[in-house]
Request: fold
Amino acid sequence: MFMYKEVHSTFTHLFSMVKRLPPLKKGGFCIYCRSKKNTMEFLLIEKAIKPHVALLTINRPKDMNALNLQLMGEIRDALKMLDEDDEVRAIVITGNEKAFAAGADIKQMSDKSAIDMYLIDQFSTWDQIKKTRKPIIAAVSGFALGGGCELAMTCDMVVASETARFGQPEIKIGVMPGAGGTQRLTRAIGKAKTMELVLTGRFLSAEEALDYHLINKVVPVELYLEEALALAEEISTMSPIGTRLAKEAVNRAFETHLEEGLHFERKNFYLAFASEDQTEGMKAFIEKRKPEFKGK
Ligand code: CAA
Reply:
C-alpha cells in the first residue's frame, strides 16, 4: 500500500511521486525534493488500498472536516493526479465516523466580502471533481452538510453508514447552497423535498436519503468504508475504457434532453468497439473465462 501523506501540492510533483517513487514514511520528508513541507495537510492519499482502488481521506477532525480552501485544493490536485494514473481505476473519498464534511469552512468565509468570494471563487475547485473521468464513490458517515453534501453529490455513488446525516443548512447561517446544492439535490430527490431541506436546513437521516434515492446503500457504521471499497474494487475489475464511456453517458443524462443523450450513448457504445477491452471482454465470454482488461 502506498501512502502519500507528505508530498507537495504541485501537480507535476505529485504525478512524479506516484509514477516513480517508493512510499514515504510518516513524519519523514519528501524524497523527491528533500523538503519537509507537507502541503497535503488535510488529505491522506492511499493509492492502492485495494488493487486499482485509491482512497482519499479528509482529515480535519477538529473542525468536522470543514472544507477550507486548502483542503479543496488538495482534493482537486489529488483527483487530477489519480485520474491520470493508469494504475488507478476507481476512487473512494471518505471522512471519519463523525463527519464526512460539515460544509465549507464558515470561519474562513465569515469576514469575506462578495468581491472577495467572487475573486477567490472557491467552488470552482468542485469543477475538477466533476471532470474526473474515473468513478468516484463517497463513503459517508456522520455529517455531510452544505459543501459536504454537495461534495458527496458530485461523486458518482454514495455508500453511507446508518449514522450519516445529509443536509443543506446554509439558510441557518444567512446564505444558501453555493456548490451545486440547489441543482444536484433537485435532480436527485425532486423539487418539493429540496425546497424543504434548503429552506429549513433540516437534515436527512441515512434511511431517508436512501428512500429519496440520494444514496446507494446504508450499512452499519463499522462497514461503510469496507462496503464502499468493495464496490470500488468490483468496478475496478471491469474494462476501464467501458467504465469511462459509461460514466460519461450516464452523466450526460443530467445535462441534455433525451434524444441527444441517446445519441451520445450510442456513439460511446460504438466507440467501445475501438478498445482491446471490448475484444477481450467478448472473447472471454465466449471462451467461458474471466476477462483480463488492460484499459486499452
Ligand atoms: N466550518 C467551520 N467550522 C466548523 C464547521 C464548518 N462548516 N462545522 C463545524 N465546525 C467546527 C465548529 O465550529 C467546532 O469548532 P470549535 O471546537 O473550534 O468550536 C467544531 O467543528 C465542532 O463542531 P460543533 O461543536 O458545532 O459540533 P456539534 O456536534 O455540536 O455539531 C454540526 C456538529 C451539526 C456539524 C455543527 O457543527 C454545524 O452545524 N456545522 C455547520 C454546518 C453548516 O452550516 N454547513 C454549511 C456551511 S456553508 C457551505 O457549505 C456553503 C456551500 O454551499 C459550499
Notes: Residues 1-38 have pLDDT under 50 and may be disordered.
